[in-house]
Amino acid sequence: MGKRNAIFVSIASFCDSNLLFTLESLFDTASGDLDINVGVFDQSFESINGSIERFQWGDRVRYLHIHPMHSKGVCWARSVIGSLFDGEDFYFQIDSHTMFKKDWDKFLFEQMEKLGKLSCKPIISTYPPPFEFDEEGNPFEKLVPSSYLYALRPKEEGFSSSDSYELKFKVFHEKGGDYITGFHLAGGFIFTLGSFVDEVPYDPWFYFHGEEQGLALRAYTKGWDIFHPRHDHIPLLHLYKQSGVKHDAHHWRSDLEQVRRVKWVERKKVSEERLTDLIEREGVNGRLGLGTERSLDQFIDFSGIDYRVKKINHPETRLVNV
């Protein structure tokens, strides 16, 4: 492998009791072939920095803490984490409730080397398959890994309203190939080159819905290529919210909303306006705006998402073998 390449892992955590589990899983399953540095922005009532420092890998974690009352949401948090990036070769964005498979770092590095022959700016991204905890608190993988591709497509209901550009996405299973070229990014799994942090920095004015759309639009128009992998080529698992579980690990949790000066609905409105301005090229310029390597019309043709008339067409399937 030559010199030891370095990975910067971005973790934005909000009142998440699984943050330490995620960190332990990340370091315990790493191959040791690459240097791993983690940027954590922990928005919680109590700091866990003391617990982190007791681990052998504690000095690999760049930890920030803030009371959740003062948080402005996940995109703001991820933009702050960008300031902890220190020139690592690769950027890996995950959620704070993630479990890893053995040698995840080596596998993703090798996949990026292969994709680098197809694109000078490759991104591996999709919604990871799920894991849960059993009654004894032991994590387990819910699905048997398959050869199906985890392609991201808009949900059937389309645009949320006539005056909004927001879409919701889900995984569609495609058969054949190692990857399928994509047009959407999953905030809980982005693995790419470190230069992504400078070229496509997080926009702190986004809130939650629309985050992934805006990021994907900006990445695509700046020349980045998205690749969705096969299920059995995804070396991480995600703990999804279960029905009946309170939103305690979500920014809009009711106890904090009751005393916040700026409510989550206000931040959501600003976020919706931000996505509108981005698409209409009116109010977002510079590094937080669209790129010049590809146009919005090219994105529309490539993705089938026609933002101009708010219509969704079926895109051409583009399978890739590496």
From TrEMBL:
A Pfam family it matches: GlcNAc
Highest taxon of the lineage: Bacteria
Signal peptide, first to last residue: none
Coiled coil: none
PANTHER family documented for this protein: GLCNAC TRANSFERASE, GLCNAC TRANSFERASE-RELATED
The protein's name in its UniProt record: GlcNAc-transferase family protein
Highest classification ranks of the organism: Bacteria, Pseudomonadati, Pseudomonadota, Gammaproteobacteria, Oceanospirillales
